[in-house]
Design brief:
Rossmann fold; three-stranded parallel sheet; globular; binds guanine; 16% strand; alpha/beta; six-stranded parallel sheet; 2 domains
């Protein structure tokens, strides 16, 4: 039987609309929209596309989008000065420093310059600490998107066995904690996990986030499981000829779709949710900072 396809694009559009409605209400009550500022260093083409999309969707939700573009040659001190200035700028509610930074720049030191109240990426030590402690705070966007997709597809997640594959700071580790907060039983698997295929096969919800094209095969998936594929990998597309590429996930989709109960496609699954959650976080940050509430 073929799996139900989880339409991340449609769910992200629904979240965007919820944010837009709340922004409209804030503007009516308080007279000003929230503001998100994205910092882009260098000219990495993929990062440029991400930042452009973030700007478009921020504006479409009725919020103010600011972009600061700096050359790859910027010094560590100058970059930190820019981010510190945004942290004390009363008009800025959210700060996102697009990663990865060009070689030679220390991203940890830059992130440490973000006021945690404006940390819409959920990457500062304060945000990570709040997540671990189960206290309210700003959560990383991509793993939050995974939880929303799982909840909107399956309903209550209580007791489900979630296997996250990958332990990155941006996705794997926070995904584990976010599913734990939904009362799931969580396994954080990674490149050193013994018999990874068997561990994956024990998952009710499988969340691969390793960045290895089609690593997870159909027979690694339990029949009827939900698969939330975080991987976005660009590979050659021999069908379209030399130089052509296509995007694939960490899961061998054509095999997995025959086994899983529900699955996210790549593209169009987890990807669109990241920006939706960024907009949600910007709204949350603006309300908390300014003492606003949506009526
Ligand atoms: N680059 C790829 N994904 C992300 C993300 O979620 N946040 C930031 N800051 N950079 C990224």
């Amino acid at each position: 039987m073929s799996a139900r396809i989880i339409d991340g694009k449609a769910i992200a559009e629904a979240v965007d609309q919820e944010v837009a409605r709340d922004v409209q209400s804030l503007v009516q009550t308080y007279g000003a929209p929230p503001c998100l500022c994205v910092v882009l260093v260098g000219e990495d083409p993929a990062s440029q596309v991400y930042v452009r999309n973030k700007g478009r969707r921020t504006q479409a939700a009725g919020m103010v989008s600011r972009e600061i573009k700096l050359p790859a040659s910027v010094s560590q001190a100058e970059l930190e000065r820019e981010v510190k200035a945004l942290s004390v700028d009363p008009d800025v509610d959210g700060i996102l420093v697009q990663l990865p930074l060009p070689a030679g720049l220390d991203s940890d030191a830059v992130i440490a310059c973000i006021d945690p109240a404006k940390d819409v990426d959920g990457l500062t030590e304060v945000s990570a600490g709040r997540l671990v402690l189960g206290r309210p705070g700003l959560r990383p966007c991509t793993p939050t998107g995974c939880v929303i997709l799982a909840k909107r597809t399956l309903g209550d997640l209580q007791g489900a066995h979630v296997v996250v594959v990958g332990r990155s700071i941006l996705v794997g580790k926070p995904a584990g904690l976010l599913f734990l907060a939904e009362d799931c039983t969580v396994t954080l698997a990674h490149s050193r996990t013994r018999d990874l295929a068997s561990v994956c096969r024990s998952a009710d919800i499988l969340v691969p986030a390793v960045g290895r094209p089609e690593m997870i095969k159909g027979d690694w998936i339990k029949s009827g499981a939900a698969v939330i594929d975080v991987g976005i990998n660009r590979v050659e597309n021999p069908i379209k000829g030399p130089g052509a590429t296509r995007l694939v996930g960490d899961v061998a989709y054509d095999q997995a779709v025959e086994v899983a109960g529900a699955i996210t496609p790549v593209p169009g699954g987890v990807g669109p949710m990241t920006i939706a959650c960024l907009l949600q976080n910007t709204l949350q940050a603006a309300c908390a900072r300014r003492g606003w509430s949506v009526s």
